[in-house]
Amino acid sequence: MIRTRSPRRAALALALALGPLLLGGCAGLREALSPAPEGVPSGRPGWLVYTVGALRFEAPETWRASGSARKLRLEAPDGNARLDVSTPEQPFEGEQACLADAEAVLKRGEAMERARRHPTRFAGARAFSFEGDSAGWHVWAWAACDGGSQYQVFFTARTPAGAEAIDAWRTLSSSARIGGQA
Asked: Which domain of life is it from (predicted)?
């Protein structure tokens, strides 16, 4: 004999099964269920300001946004460029630990062609930058630390990069700020 549950009982069973995951801090599930991030007008026509943690930056308003408050992806309408920005849920135990991890994160890209990595500043904070090529794509990346808070920024464009992608990269690198206004 097959027993069927009422829709109300099925919903209650599902809520009881998923409740511990939702309330227990399952970041992946929270991100999957959160609405896509929205930018706010930047004051320049065609550009929006996005915020990830305390990092603020401008990006083209035509780019599709997805992700969450801690992990944002913006993709150009033609699919030839994208921007991924994230910050870990838990900060590091200080800037030195953050910078050591930042360097290790970017070191993973050394297998790319024409790869180069060096200390720099990004968004007003100490950082490491990376640049390299892989399979027809060019990558610019930064891992910046504001105290123990780390911001990982990966801008990827199909090569040769078009004018819109280059403009978006230049605007990102000049407008990014941790705290305050972009």
From this structure: Bacteria
Q: Do 94 and 148 contact (CB within 8 A), yes or no?
A: yes
The total number of structural domains that make up the chain: 2
The whole model's pTM is what?
0.80
- Please report, as a single letter, which amino acid is at residue 85: V
Residue type, 15: A
Q: Residue 65 forms beta bridges with which residues? A: 74
- List the beta bridge partners of residue 113: 133
Q: What is the mean pLDDT of the chain?
A: 85
Q: Is there a contact between 159 and 142 (Cβ–Cβ < 8 Å)?
A: no
Asked if residue 73 and residue 9 are part of one domain, the reply reads no
Q: Pull the structure tokens for residue 83.
A: 């921007």
Residue 45: asked if its preceding bond is cis (omega within 30°), the reply is no
CB under 8 Å to 1, separation ≥6 — which residues?
none
Strand order in the sheet with 149-158: 64-67, 71-75, 81-86, 149-158, 137-146, 125-134, 113-122
Residue 123: give its domain's CATH number.
3.40.1000.10
DSSP string, 36-61: PP--EE-SSTTEEEEEETTEEEEEET
